[in-house]
Each structure stands twice: as C-alpha cells, then as structure tokens.
Amino acid sequence: MEQLQTTRGAMWLRLLTGGAPTLHDWPSVQVCDAPLAGQPARWIAVVPDPGNRFPRARNGEVGLVEGWQLAQAVQETIEQDRDAAVKRPIVAVIDVPSQAYGRREEAYGIHQALAGAAGAYAQARLAGHPVIGLIVGLAMSGAFLAHGYQANRLIALDDPGVMVHAMGKASAARVTLRTVEALEKLAEKVPPMAYDIKNYASLGLLWKVLQLTNPALPDEQDLALLHGTLEAALADILDDFERGLAKRLEAPHRSASRRVRALLETQWEAAD
Amino acid sequence: MTDIDKFLKRDSFIERNARSRARALLDPGTMREVAGPFERLYSPWLAMQHLVTQADDGVVVAKGRLDGAPTVVLAIEGGFQGGSMGEIGAAKIAGSLELAARDNRHGIPTQAVILFETGGVRLQEANLGLAGIAEIQAAIVDLRRYRPVIGVSAGTVGCYGGMSIAAGLCSYLVLTREARLGLNGPQVIEQEAGVAEFDARNRALIWGLTGGEQRAATGLADACVDDDSAAIRAEVARLFARGVPERHRSERAAEYLAALAQADTAVQPAAADVRAVYTKGEA
After folding, report:
1. Separation between Cα atoms, residue A23 and residue A46, nearest integer Å
2. Distances in Å between the alpha carbon of B247 and those of A15, B151, B175, B250?
3. Is the per-residue pLDDT at A176 higher than 90?
4. At residue B7, does pLDDT exceed 50?
5. pLDDT of amino acid B283
6. Which domains, ranges and CATH numbers included, belong to chain A?
7. What span, in angstroms and rounded, lies between the C-alpha atoms of B241 and B5?
8. Cβ pairs bridging A and B (under 8 Å)
9. Does residue A212 surpass a pLDDT of 70?
10. Is residue B9 within 8 Å of residue B172, measured between CB atoms?
C-alpha cells in the first residue's frame, strides 16, 4: 500500500512530462523540463530512493538532501529566468509521505533544509514564476511545507489515497494525549483535523479537486483532464495580480483568519 | 560584580511571558498591542473540542520602536497549548508580517522579531495550523527582502515542527543555551522510528544535538546568548543594524549539500561530528 502510494508521484511526473529526462542525477528529487500550455515549464517530484545514504529517507520522505535539492532546483529556475520577461511555471508534483524522522536529520538541521525548499518556492512565486502544486498522493506535514505549500494554486485528486495532514495518526494521538480511536472520532466532527481530501477541500486551500476514472492507473481521459486543469490554473495565475496566498482565505472555514487580518489592518496604523 | 551577583541581578527573558518579552525588546513606552486579548480571539476549533481557549490564542502582536526603528514583535506564549499554532495565532503572525511588508512597499521600514516558543502545528486544528504556518513562511520570505526578520527562541518550550522551518527562513536567529531548535520533537521521532533512533527521555542527547549552543556552533543560528533580557535585546539590535544579509541561510543549498556529502551517515553523529562537518566547508 505504502509503496504504491509513494510511487504515485513518480508515475504522474512521468505521465505529465511524457517521460522527459531528468536534469540532475539525483535519485530522490526528480526535476525535468516539459511544456505546459505549449510553453516551457519545470516539473519537480520527490520519489523513493531505497539506496538513500540517510536511512530514514528511503521511502520518499523529504530529508536533509531532498530539502536542499528541492531548494537548488527551484533556485536554478529563478536564476535561469532572472532576465526573462516570461518566468517559466514550476509544477510541484506532490506525493510526500512525511519529512524524514531521524536522529541524523535533527543533528544536521533538517528544519534548515526544508526552509531552503519552502523559501525557494516562495521566492519563485514572488519573482513571478507561476507555481502550481498538484497533490496526487500524500501531502504530509513538513514535507508538504517544503514541497508545494508555497504554490500560487493547489490542485488535488479526489481519491482515498490522497491525504493532507500535519502529523501521522499514532504520533498525533501521543502528542495530544488521546487514543487513535478518539482522534478519528474527533476528526469526523472537526474539519481541520480530518485526513481526507473532501474535508481538506472545505478549508478553502485547494483551487480545484479533480475526479479521475482511475487515479492509480490513469487513462487518456484522466491525463487530458489533468493537463487541462494545469493549463487553466496557469491562466488563472497569469490573470491574477496577487502573488501572495490571499486566495486561500475565502472559504467559510477561514472566517477566523479573515477576522484577524481585518482587525490587524484597522488597528495597525493607529498603533504607531 | 562577581559571577554570582551577575546571575542574581540578571533579568531572565525565559521567566517572562510572551507579552512581557515583547515589552522587554521594544523601546520603553512605545509598545502598543494590536488585535489584543480584548478582541476575544478565542480559537473556535479548541472550543468545539471543549478544550481551554485563551483570548489572544497564545500570540501577542506588539508594535513599537527598537532603537527608534518601527518594529513589530510577534511573541508566542509557550505556556498556552505548548505555543502551538492554531488558525488564529498563525493568522496574527502571518497577517502582521504581511502588513510589515506592505509598510516597506509604502516607504515605512517596519522590521519584525518573532519569538518562537512553539511545538509547531496545534494538532487540534491540524490542517489549519499547517496552512497558517505556510502563510507565515510566505510572509517571512516577502518581508525579509526589505528588512531583516529576526527569530529568537529563548526556551524552555523550544522551536519545533513547521515553525522550525519558519525559523530557518529568518534573516537571523538568536538562541539561548536553554533553547532547542529542530523539526521533529524527540517524542515524535521515538514514536515514528523507535527508541533506538531517538530516546525522548535522554535530555543530554536532545540539548547536545539541538540546543542553542550546538546550533550556534554549527552556524544554524547566529548567536547563543545568556538568558538575560538586556543581552537578548542588544543582540537583536546588533543584528538589525547589520541589515538584510546578502544571502539568507535558507539560500545556501549548494554549501549545505557539499557539507552533507562529507557526513558519515553509516553512524549516528555526535555533536562534535556535526560541528566538524559544518565548520570544514562554507556552510
């Protein structure tokens, strides 16, 4: 099950780019160039590397090396288009089971590696690169923050294998002093605590949720729908003057976020 | 003054709560709280689960001056829900950083200090905490183009989870010996990878690898200062005076990859091994 899910990212990257060659010889961070809407685009996915030097990062987790390689891949894109009038789009194909949990990771500062990646994606967005995050499998916690969460638009497949969350169930239960059963019961009533994509969509963070005939083994029609949606996302970003993430605040479940921002705005200058 | 006198007269930053920490950093008499507790910004999600709420949701937004410069201090209250980031607390931090960036675009050079005392995402608000942290990260990267964003983690909660990534995006990072900085908390690593990978009860291991002294010695933080309000304030002021760094720590992918290539990953590293790897090269 896990193996199937962690290879979804690799499968979609291959399908969407027509098997374009990778730009680096990195086993776990695959970067390639392939057109989107007929224009050059850069595509990035994190995939499992069973031979990873870091043993806790062998199943597609975002570890120290993956974080910094994502950062480098995105920085290179920004650098190459520094003087270009049109900044090429970046598509993050997202299927990341988690960040790497290990002693080596903490010792060498995995938080800094993930900051490298998140920061690079944010800089690309601010520099005018349209950044699209396509969630085809798991989008978990720090791994998602590093790979995709900084996108202008997020798209997810509607499928039980697609999940977004801050922490795995067993750990979340331990930290909140609950049983896994109690956690699951609460998740049914509290939308931000849920693990499934329908509840996640209700939070307003996704631009589109796509229903495919077979997300695990997509046909021509599925692929066409995905290409079409990515093109529409690109057009939507290019139409939008906003380079920040304000679009994510529009859903009913974000009313508290909007209220806080409105309060800050009215009190900000008066506080000087 | 003898060492013991100095110790006794020291104004501990750690013992201050979030509001008092913010006040200690700003010029006397200049602090004004924005979106404060009288706005009754209780977390709707905690209330829904019959858990304790707080009128400021554990985040203080304090505007004022630091050595005369317009500054906003975003102080996380480690004593409330472990400093965890829920929807409201995260929106207070992200929204303030967004306004500080807007100030800069309008010619007002507002700068920001974030006091990290947090376990990361508030798991009772899971996906909205995570989304809020992504928005904080976006706002740090925006603001740091104009003025430095300085992170401070004094302890004793430490700085973990998605907020450790936010700390990694700051222009400068100031820690104390009591602070810990890491992505995954010891309990979570033990849960996910087993006690042989990480023993969450081994405090010497935790502070040795992720404490303020080690982070500063390995370049993952800019300074490790005493738990003293005046010393922390002086360090923050000194770093603001340096201005925006030519390259942020988060932009040094090539150096870090080169350093990590030297690491012996067959064994679990000791603190000295990490120092050796990160002081040999440029990272």
Report:
1. 14
2. 37, 16, 20, 8
3. no
4. yes
5. 53
6. 2-245 (3.90.226.10)
7. 31
8. 277
9. yes
10. no
Q: The tokens 């995006």 sit on which residue?
A: B169
Q: Which of A104, A171, A194 sits opposite B192 (nearest CB)?
A: A171
Contacts of B193 in chain A (CB under 8 A): 56, 101-102
Q: What is the pLDDT of residue B281?
A: 54
Beta bridge partners of A62: A99
Mean pLDDT across the stretch A141-148? 97
| Alpha carbons A46 and A31: distance in angstroms, whole number | 9
**Is the four-CA dihedral B269, B272, B273, B279 of positive or negative sign?**
positive
pLDDT by residue (tens digit) across B221-236?
999 999 999 999 999 9
Cα dihedral A258/B111/B114/B272 (nearest 10): 140
> Is the bond into B2 cis (omega within 30 degrees of 0)?
no
Cβ atoms within 10 Å, residue B215: 28
Q: What's the whole-model pTM score?
A: 0.97
The C-alpha atoms of residue A129 and residue A89 are separated, in whole angstroms, by: 5
The one-letter amino acid code at A133 reads G
DSSP letter for each residue of B177-231:
TT-BB-SS-HHHHHHHH-TTT--TT-HHHHHHHHBHHHHHHTTSSSEEE-S-HHH
Out of 3.40.50.960, 3.90.480.10, 3.90.226.10, 3.30.450.20, the CATH code matching B3-246 is 3.90.226.10
Q: Which of residues 6-45 of A touch B (CB under 8 A)?
A: none
d(CA A72, CA A76): 6
The 3-state secondary structure of chain B, one letter per residue: CCHHHHHHHCCCCCCCCHHHHHHHHCCCCCCEEECCHHHCCCCHHHHHCCCCCCCCCCEEEEEEEECCEEEEEEEECCCCHHHCECHHHHHHHHHHHHHHHHHHHCCCCCEEEEECCECCECHHHHHHHHHHHHHHHHHHHHHCCCCCEEEEECCCCCECCHHHHHHHHCCEEEEECCCEECCCCHHHHHHHHCCCCCCCCCHHHHHHHHEHHHHHHCCCCCEEECCCHHHHHHHHHHHHHHCCCCCCHHHCHHHHHHHHHHCCCCCCCCHHHHHHHHHHCCC
**Contact in structure between B34 and B63 (CB atoms under 8 Å):** yes
Q: Is the pLDDT of residue A205 over 70?
A: yes
Q: Which residue has the tokens 């907020």?
A: B163
Give ranges for CATH 3.90.226.10 in chain B: 3-246
Interface of B with A in 216-275 (CB under 8 A): 218, 220, 248-254, 256-257, 260, 263, 265, 268-269, 271, 273-274
Q: Which of B92, B119, B269 sits opposite A104 (nearest CB)?
A: B269
Chain centroid offset of residue A133 CA: 5
Cα B159-B161-B164 angle, rounded to 5 deg: 50
Within 10 Å of residue B186's Cβ, how many Cβ atoms?
Answer: 23
Name the residue among A74, A72, A60 with its Cα closest to residue B260: A72
Q: What is the pLDDT of residues B236-282, one digit of tens each?
A: 999 999 999 999 999 999 999 999 999 999 999 999 999 999 987 55
